[in-house]
Amino acid sequence: MQDTKRIRELMRILVVDDHKLFADGLGLVLHSIAESVQLIIVNSTQSALYEIEINPEFDLLLLDLNMPGLDGISLLTSIKERQALIPCVIISATEDIWQIKNALDLGAFGFVPKSFDCVQLIDALNHVLSGNTYVPTEIIKNINRLEEQQVRETNKLVRILSQFGITKRQYEVLKLLAKGYSNQKIASTLYLSKHTVKSHVAALLSAFQAENRTDCVRQAREHGLTS
Fold this sequence. Notes:
This protein is an alpha/beta fold. It is about 60% helix and about 10% strand.
């Protein structure tokens, strides 16, 4: 009874999902256990931003990630920029661990797969309303694996850059060289002078003992520094 009471104490919930059937079904689930809940259901992030602008006093935001136009990540970014204090739970069918991690890093309090049943959903929401985060164990394991992989790749990159004596700024120039950017375009992109870019390119050619820019990029790819 205590878990249900937590839901009943909510005044306003914003549901953002472009699948109207799912959004309406979610609304029915919440109303079935708490008739006093005020639900506002919208089918786009633009509509959600409008609702938040006119009255940001929401107790909970239930958000899908994959939507046409501005996606859920864009909405989370906007909410963070506005410093709106709205507890958010992602309810999504996505299996993209990068996307889920990004949402959590942007401040989402939880992630609930759309495959969950009503009991699991309510349990997850009550967990968040108690001041905790909720992420399924398997998702946490996958995020941990992803972070460990990132650390390994970063350490490998640092070792290779150190091996060739390439600075962080030179590496930024190298990545743009690999995209075929001219010195002028690199300068504009990195807010550097053309002369500075020319010096960085010369240093890269020397580091790889390359004959020209093409050869420099080829060697960089062979060492895993560019894609």
